[in-house]
User: Fold Ubiquitin-conjugating enzyme E2 C from Merluccius polli.
Amino acid sequence: METLKRSSRRDNSLMRSVMELVTNQTQIRFESLTADWLSAWREAFEFCSASRDDLKMSSQNTDPATAASSAALKGSEAGGSAARGSVTKRLQQELMTLMMSGDKGISAFPESDNLFKWIGTIDGAQGTVYEGLRYKLSLEFPSGYPYKAPRVKFITACFHPNVDEQGFICLDILKDKWSALYDVRSILLSIQSLLGEPNNDSPLNTTAAELWENQEGEK
Assistant:
């Protein structure tokens, strides 16, 4: 019995060490890339702004067929703008709900001025091997949200049975079990719960799944 306890503690310690190493290395890379990313974003924005006048000038000399095509495109864009406005309103409401919820260990906020892309944070729950660790995630919302699920992935590397090397998450509510009733708050809470209660029946990281099964079997 004492041998089993020592083995269980060893597996627990090993998994914890791997997670801390991966998490810390990714945090360093993320922070070092932030300034470069912002600089590149600004350059792209300035380029697009400078090109806007050129596009306006070229549009003044068009034939009738091109003008008709342009009118049809504008009509389509008008419908798209209305749909986008509906999604924007929904996301604004979700942001307010999340800020007012008072939930501990989860947070999210739009990235710069882009309401369709958020950065979220999740703290590992107490009593799990993830306790004391904080993870960053990206949430990208499609134009069909909330009827289509957002694209959610870890930015911080997460050593977990249901998270792959690219940070993608195997979670049913982000796939076939998605419902328009879910929101950002429920997504973050579900992922936080998944950290402590993985689904080893469909692992994305088999090494993490094996370690988890070993520590669970020897408790």
Observations:
- The radius of gyration is 23 Å.
- Residues 19 and 159 are 5 Å apart (CA to CA).
- The chain is about 55% helix and 10% strand.
- Confidence is low (pLDDT under 50) at residues 28-38, 47-59.
